[in-house]
C-alpha cells in the first residue's frame, strides 16, 4: 500500500476521523486553556466557562431529536417503508424496498424542518431567558460590563444556530458520511485553536471568543446544509413543501425521542448542575476556581474516555455476534487504559496543579483539599458509569430515564439548599451522594449482568488482564528501539 492510498483510506475511515476529531479537543485543552488563564482575569474566566455551560443548557432544546433523526435517515436510506416505533416493531421483519426510499426521505426532510422550527421557538421563549437568569449574577459581580453582555448575546445566537446544525449533522450521519463529517469537524477544530490563540494574544476578551464561535457555528451550519441538500439533489430526492408534516414519521420519532430527551436533561443537570448553582454564589474567585477545576477535570475525562469511545463500534459488533469472551477481553484492556489515564490525571492535578499555576503567575487556582478529592471522585465514578451504560445500550434498551430525572432534580433541588449553609463542600458532596444513589452503579450492574460477568472476575480481568495487555504492547514497542541502539 503506497502513502497516497493509505492516506486516502485514513481520511475516509469513520474510526480514524473520529480519533482525529478527539485530537483537536485535546490540542485545544493543551494550547488554548493556558492562554485563557494567563490572559483573562477571574471575572472573565468565570463568565467564559459559565457561557460554555449555558451552550449545553441551550442544546437541551433539541430534546434528543438529533439522534432519532439520524436513525430515521439511516433506515430510509436502507430502504425501509416504515420506521419502527418501539423495540417490538424493530424485532419484526421490516418491509424493505431494497433501494433508498426517496419518497420517505423527502417527507422526513419537510417534517424535520417543522420540528426544528418548533425547537427554535422553544429555545427563544424558554432557554434564552433561563440562560440570562443563570448568568446574571456572575456578570453583575463583574459590574455589568456591556462587553460581557454582548458575549452572552453571541452565545445565545450561536446556540440557536447550533440547534439547526444538529439537524444537518444528523443527515450526514444517517447517509453514512460520518468520516466526511468528522473530517470537517477536525478542520474546524484546528482552525478554532488558531483563531482563539490569535484573539487571546490580541486581548480580544470574552466577547472576541464568543463572536468567533458564532461565526464558526454559522459557517458550519451553512456548509453542512449545502452538503445535505447537494446529496438530496444528487440522489433525485424531490423536497416537498416545507410546510408538509408527516404525522406517521413524527409519531415514530417522538416515541423514542421523549425518553431520550428527558434522560439527556436529567444527565445534564446531574453533571453540570453544580456549575449553574455555584454561579449564584457571591464570590467571583470561588466561581472561577470551581468552573476552571471542572473544565480541566472534564478535559481529563474526555482524554481518558477517548480510547474506549473509538473502540465502541468494535465492541458492539462483538456483542452482536455474541462473542462474549472477546467482549470482556476488549473491555478489560480499554478500561485499564481509561483507569490509568483518569486516575493518573486526577492525581497529577491534585498534587502539582496549583504549583504549576503558581509558576505561571496567574490568579486562578484549582479547588483543593477534600473538595477537590470528592469532586474528582464524583466525576470519575460518573465517567465509569457512562462507559458501562454505553456497553449496555447495545441491546437497544435504555432504562435510565427515571434514574437520570430523579438524580438531576435532586442535584438542583438539594444543591441550591445546601450552598448557603455548607458552601462549595456541601455542593460537591451533594453531587457525589446523588451519583452514588443510583447512577454510579446501576449501569455497571446492568452491563455486568448482560455479559454474565461477576464483579470479582470483572475487577480481576480489568486490572490483571488489562495490565498484561498494555505491558506487552509497551515491551513490543520498546524492543525494536533497544535493538537499534545495540546495533549502533
Structural overview:
This protein is mainly alpha-helical. The protein folds into two domains: 10-280, no CATH class; 283-488, no CATH class. It is 83% helix and 0% strand. It has 16 helices and no strands. It has helices at residues 3-11, 14-39, 42-58, 65-77, 87-91, 102-141, 146-174, 178-201, 205-234, 247-278, 284-320, 324-360, 369-392, 401-437, 439-450, 455-487. Helix 13 runs antiparallel to helix 14 (401-437). It is globular. The model has no long low-confidence stretch (mean pLDDT 86).
Q: Figure out the total of helices.
A: 16
Contiguous low-pLDDT stretches (5 residues minimum) are none
Order of helices and strands: HHHHHHHHHHHHHHHH
Helix content: over 70%
> Helix- and strand-based class?
mainly alpha
Characterize the largest beta sheet: strand count, sense, and whether it forms a barrel: none
C-alpha Rg, in Å?
24 Å
**What is the typical, i.e. mean, pLDDT?**
86
Q: How far is it from the N-terminal to the C-terminal residue, by CA?
A: 30 Å
DSSP strand count: 0
Domains (count) = 2
Overall form: globular
How much β-strand is present in the residues? Answer: under 5%
Secondary-structure map with pairings?
Elements: H1 3-11, H2 14-39, H3 42-58, H4 65-77, H5 87-91, H6 102-141, H7 146-174, H8 178-201, H9 205-234, H10 247-278, H11 284-320, H12 324-360, H13 369-392, H14 401-437, H15 439-450, H16 455-487
Helix pairs in contact: 2-8, 2-11, 3-6, 3-7, 3-10, 3-11, 4-6, 4-7, 4-10, 6-7, 6-10, 7-9, 8-9, 10-14, 11-12, 11-13, 12-13, 12-16, 13-14, 13-15
Amino acid at each position: 500500500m503506497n502513502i497516497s492510498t493509505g492516506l486516502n483510506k485514513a481520511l475516509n475511515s469513520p474510526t480514524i476521523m473520529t480519533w482525529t476529531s478527539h485530537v483537536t479537543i485535546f490540542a485545544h485543552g493543551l494550547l488554548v486553556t493556558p492562554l485563557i488563564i494567563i490572559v483573562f482575569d477571574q471575572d472573565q474566566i468565570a463568565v467564559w466557562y459559565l457561557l460554555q455551560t449555558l451552550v449545553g443548557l441551550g442544546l437541551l432544546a433539541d430534546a434528543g431529536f438529533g439522534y432519532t433523526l439520524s436513525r430515521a435517515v439511516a433506515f430510509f436510506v436502507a430502504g425501509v417503508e416504515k420506521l419502527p416505533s418501539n423495540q417490538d416493531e424493530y424485532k419484526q421483519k421490516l418491509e424493505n424496498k431494497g433501494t433508498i426510499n426517496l419518497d420517505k426521505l423527502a417527507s422526513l426532510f419537510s417534517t424535520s424542518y417543522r420540528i426544528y422550527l418548533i425547537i427554535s421557538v422553544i429555545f427563544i421563549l424558554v432557554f434564552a431567558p433561563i440562560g440570562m437568569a443563570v448568568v446574571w449574577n456572575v456578570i453583575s459581580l463583574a459590574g455589568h460590563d456591556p462587553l460581557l453582555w454582548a458575549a452572552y448575546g453571541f452565545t445565545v445566537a450561536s446556540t440557536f444556530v447550533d440547534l439547526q446544525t444538529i439537524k444537518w449533522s444528523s443527515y450526514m450521519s444517517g447517509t453514512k458520511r460520518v468520516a466526511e463529517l468528522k473530517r470537517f469537524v477536525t478542520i474546524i477544530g484546528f482552525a478554532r485553536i488558531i483563531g482563539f490563540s490569535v484573539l487571546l494574544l490580541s486581548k480580544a476578551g470574552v466577547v472576541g471568543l464568543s463572536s468567533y464561535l458564532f461565526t464558526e457555528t454559522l459557517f458550519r451550519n451553512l456548509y453542512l446544509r449545502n452538503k445535505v441538500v447537494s446529496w438530496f439533489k444528487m440522489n433525485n430526492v424531490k423536497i416537498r413543501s416545507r410546510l408538509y408534516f408527516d404525522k406517521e414519521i413524527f409519531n415514530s420519532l417522538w416515541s423514542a425521542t421523549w425518553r431520550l430527551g428527558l434522560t439527556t436533561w436529567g444527565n445534564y443537570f446531574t453533571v453540570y448542575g453544580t456549575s449553574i448553582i455555584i454561579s449564584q454564589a457571591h464570590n467571583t474567585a470561588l466561581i472561577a476556581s470551581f468552573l476552571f477545576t471542572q473544565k480541566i477535570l472534564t478535559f481529563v475525562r474526555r482524554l481518558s474516555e477517548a480510547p474506549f469511545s473509538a473502540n465502541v463500534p468494535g465492541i458492539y459488533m462483538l456483542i452482536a455476534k455474541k462473542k462474549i469472551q472477546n467482549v470482556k477481553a476488549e473491555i478489560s484492556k480499554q478500561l485499564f487504559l481509561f483507569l490509568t489515564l483518569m486516575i493518573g490525571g486526577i492525581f497529577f492535578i491534585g498534587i502539582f496543579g496549583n504549583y504549576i499555576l503558581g509558576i505561571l503567575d496567574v490568579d486562578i487556582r484549582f479547588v483543593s483539599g477534600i473538595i477537590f478529592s470528592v469532586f474528582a471522585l464524583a466525576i470519575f465514578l460518573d465517567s465509569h458509569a457512562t462507559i458501562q451504560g454505553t456497553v449496555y445500550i447495545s441491546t437497544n434498551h435504555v432504562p435510565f430515564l427515571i434514574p437520570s430525572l430523579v438524580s438531576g432534580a435532586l442535584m438542583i433541588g438539594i444543591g441550591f439548599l445546601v450552598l448557603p449553609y455548607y458552601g462549595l463542600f456541601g455542593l460537591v458532596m451533594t453531587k457525589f451522594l446523588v451519583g452514588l444513589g443510583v447512577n454510579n452503579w446501576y449501569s455497571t450492574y446492568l452491563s455486568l449482568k448482560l455479559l454474565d460477568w461477576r464483579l470479582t472476575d470483572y475487577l480481576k480481568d480489568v486490572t490483571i488482564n488489562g495490565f498484561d495487555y498494555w505491558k506487552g504492547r509497551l515491551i513490543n514497542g520498546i524492543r525494536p528501539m533497544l535493538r537499534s541502539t545495540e546495533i549502533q
